[in-house]
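User: Can you help me understand a structure? I only have the sequence.
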Amino acid sequence: MDFLTLFGIYVVVVLTCIALVCRYSGQQHSPLNSLYSFALKRLASITPKWLQKFSQWTLHRLFHQRSNAFIYLHILLEGAVYAEFTYEVFGFCREMDTTLISLSVPYILLAIKTFFFYLCIKTDPGTVTKKKVASQLHIYSYDRRLFHPGISCSTCQLVKPARSKHCRVCNRCVQRFDHHCVWVNNCIGAQNTRYFLLYLFSVCAMACDIALLTVDMLLHVVLRTGLLGASYLDENGQRQPAGFLFVVQHLFLTFPRIVFMLGFLLFVFFLLAGYTMFHSFLAVVNQTSNEWYKSRGYVCQHCHPSTAADILCSPVPDHSKRYYYSRGVLRNLGEIFFPPQPVQKKDN
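Assistant: Let's start by predicting it. Here is the structure, written out as tokens:
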């Protein structure tokens, strides 16, 4: 089995996993959950106890406690891509008369991305505090479907404003909570959703631009060397024309690091492009991913299985619209990029 076949199988498996995660996300009972539970039981029977404890401790540290590990990983991967681009692709592009303006765009995008990345990390997402909670309660009305008045956070001991949620990783309630992002080690909420969106767009633009410059360089190599019109001798000694797979394999053997970087960039671009489109859609309809996740099952986040809870969770007719907080595209986007600020009353 040659390299291209193995790489093709790898791409199909990865894309299939991504599609399954997108298809069954938000569902408590799904084939993925059943498969995950089955795999855990099987692995537990053959895995040493110390390795199980170490794995649980590592996963807990990475995903259930605040950690800069993914920030460092982000910087490491980004540095590796730019090192390869600068070391090899940049020089080849200059030999092929690519303008300095075109070659400078990835570095400009890197500066823009770094700026929004920093703001995502450092900006307070909208923490609900004792000083602000009185004013934060009036920013959004309760839809009485996912968010109900008079519900207090058992950890923060504060009344929860509409659209807020307690983040177990950061140990705080966040206004207009979207999700906790491990890549920025911060919650995404009312005050930094705009920076998160711009960060996603800048990463996609950065990956796309470097990939286009790399593809342009490889195409010039193919055209200049005449690979498309070349031929080779097969196992039977017959002369065969060089097809697409032959050209790709030749490029991989000649420029292995560049082709590997291109594959990584394309994978990151398509993965993040879908994620960016999802969050753009949520911004247009004024919904958070937390609300999208919960509304798929129409399950209230505050209730317990009891008769009183069922009554509390029953939808009110006036509040039955799917996107309760949507006020039109322009106003929704304005709320993202110019979020309403809680007004603190001054003591007389």
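Now, to help you interpret it: DSSP finds twelve helices and six strands in the chain. The CA atoms of residues 219 and 283 lie 38 Å apart. Let me know which part you'd like to focus on.
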